[in-house]
Amino acid sequence: MNKKLRAMFVGIPNVGKSSLINKICGSKKAKVENRPGVTLNKQWIPTNIGFDLMDMPGVLWPKFEEKAVGENLAITGAIKDAILDTEYIAMVLCSRLKNLARAQFMARYKIKEDELLSCETDYEVFELVGKKRGFLISGGEINTERTAATLLEEFRSAKIGAISLEAPEN
Fold first, then answer.
1. How many CB atoms are located within 10 Å of the residue 127 CB?
2. Tens digit of each residue's pLDDT (9 = 90 or more) over 58-113
3. Which run of H or of E encompasses 54?
4. From CA 98, how far away is CA 168, in angstroms rounded?
């Protein structure tokens, strides 16, 4: 009966498993950063409340039945940006925001309704964000790399607002 109780936290990458463990422990025993892939190995972390907690890397299912699931995970940062086309993911984010949180999206980037309506494609909406932010390079072209990085960072840090990309099915 002298065995310690043990529990583990399981979830997708970059949702706060290590942060929660640190909060429960009352100290920074698990490494934490605002990007996926920081926790590389499983580790047992002792607490001062009589049990050990396992911190482990995030897990993803091997195949998504719907493309939108993978896109949403990429948008939220659960999948490393380094393995993605961030400009494509940011363009998808523009599409989601235009449909799910139009007012917040337009307010954050100072976009007028007629400007949004004049965009024929989601890529044009993405470029409009870059233009509104002043992310221009020589020749007046949009710096799409900077636009993508900014859009994703601002969404992930809730600067656009507390927005869910999915709604429960009725």
1. 19
2. 777 667 778 888 888 889 888 878 878 999 999 999 999 999 999 999 999 999 99
3. strand 51-55
4. 19
